[in-house]
Request: fold
Amino acid sequence: MNDSRKLRILLGKVGLDGHDRGIIIVARALRDAGFEVIYTGLHNTPETVVEMAIQEDVDALGISVLSGAHNHIFPEILRLLKEHGIDDKTVFGGGIIPKEDIESLKEKGVQAVFEPGASTDDITLWIRENVTPRALS
Amino acid sequence: MCADKNNPEKIAFGKERWQKEYDRASKREGDVTTISGMEIDPLVTPLELKGLDYSKDLGFPGSYPYTRGIHSSMYRGRFWTMRQFAGFGTPEDTNKRFKYLLGQGQTGLSTAFDMPTLMGYDSDHERSRGEVGKEGVSVSSLADMEALFEGIDLEKITTSMTVNCTAAIIFAMYIVMAEKRGVSRDKLRGTLQNDMLKEFIAQREWISPPRPSVKIVVDVMEFCANEVPGWHPVSISGYHIREAGSTAVQELAFTLADGICYVEEGIKRGLDLDSFAPRLSFFFNVHNDFLEEVAKFRAARRMWARIMRERFGASDPKSCLLKTHAQTAGASLTAQQPINNVARVTIQALAAVLGGTQSLHTNSMDETLALPTEEAVTVALRTQQIIAEESGVANSIDPLGGSYLIESLTDRIEKEAVNYIDKIDSMGGIINAIQDSYPQKEIADSAYKYQRELDKGVKTIVGVNKYCSQDETISIPTLKIDEKVEHGQSEKLRRLKDKRDSGAVAKRLQDIVVAAREEENLMPCIIQAVREYATLGEISDVFREVYGVYSDPGYF
Reply:
């Protein structure tokens, strides 16, 4: 049974950034790969995204940031997950994020950051290998 | 004798013979469609152009239908305007970059604003955290606008401002800033992007729903027709549609459909068509597929001329001109092997010039990593100068006109774009189509298809899915925005709010509420409000209160 259970992935846009070409492509690719995908739409706050992650009981959160606000957004989401006691959920991201910032985001708990040019196959494969399904209740 | 030279039977006979040899020849592996997926014939001959009527379909530069260019002299008259989009950090930071670019021979300014400014939030708003000065310059009040253009002669330059849902506010600040320096409205030259329709389709910066958003766009059109005759109140933009992943045909079709909507709304407002249509301008993307892009620009001019004359009955030839700015494709740049981007930008810029653009922004090689450094911007500007003054392509007008392939592509792009416009008409126009997410879905389908082709290696991006370097490290410097910008801008705003006449501000804001409720033109009230240093966020709050807030349907 466990094998057939679909992973639930929340994909989110946070902040004022309107670049959604990438995240819509990733959402479609993950859906086509057999995951359940919940897309938040644009212009969310870290709070609304974390609330949605709780309500939708997802296994992982993928956040896209192309506005340069990543050093504000990711730590805030990680902090809120911890505050709600659900920091076991995998957080990954993508966007225009400089290499040195990727390192520091990873130290803070972002599991992977996909840069421009990443293929949807890479992202799918990474999720299969790295996201642990949430405990069945 | 003469007639025999182009005898169709003789050409057909020759083509048949060639076709047999071509079919026998071995062919390289790989995709032979355009980047938009359009099939390309291996050879085009006069036979495929039998329907082309030179006088009716091409004509002469400066004459209907303007396929070969909107001016009779084109680049023999003067080169296109070299206009690099710039903006970051504080108004003072961007002012320095403006002066640098003007000093390097740039001939027009183009302002990039940060996300809070573009979305109607002041620099001290909670929603602005982490975003102040990041993707452009932070402007919350008239004081910021004054600092942005300090020491720049407003009568000598043309200023383009890329701003949409807050365009009326930013424009009001520009007008008051100029007025305080003694420059009257009739002397101002420039362009506001102010194209809300493409925001819902692609760029996704908005405050209120489509209909009130378009109402404010038309307010600015009406105000300019009466008060600021040298200004282009709307730049109808395909750029962002293409960046969101559309094909060339979709970019063209949705952009012209947006244009049709603004013209219809202007007429509904009671404006005389020829009083505002000549001031509409366009903004297209220019991507890697060189021939497709050249054909797209040519098709765009011909289509708009025909739409204006045949659909709207424009009598002033100026109403039929598709004047356009072009920018090389940001989405085509790669973070991998970033110096390769200089080659991409060169090809794209050349296509824009051979397509007959009026102004051009060339992207910098580092723009997929961060906002450009001064050095990278200089290379991008020099690329244009090399095309203009070394390559020789500006010596003859529309030098690719008459190419069998270019003419057949121009025709095909026009036909396919007309089909889209017919479909949008059948849906009741672009606003209805947007509310049904029709253009949004078409674009997302194209973007996904292209990405899958990249993933499968059907389409190539050098350095990304082919010819990759192992263990690549980024070897070019990038611009960092100081985190202090946010604090500094918020502080400045706090001091401004302490100093201004808060009673006058409140009254002026209330005037906008009343004007909005009574469906009056908002521009005069917004001008009065910014004069009292009402902020961009405060005026945007009026829009939120009166018109409501639009939220992303979030489909994928």
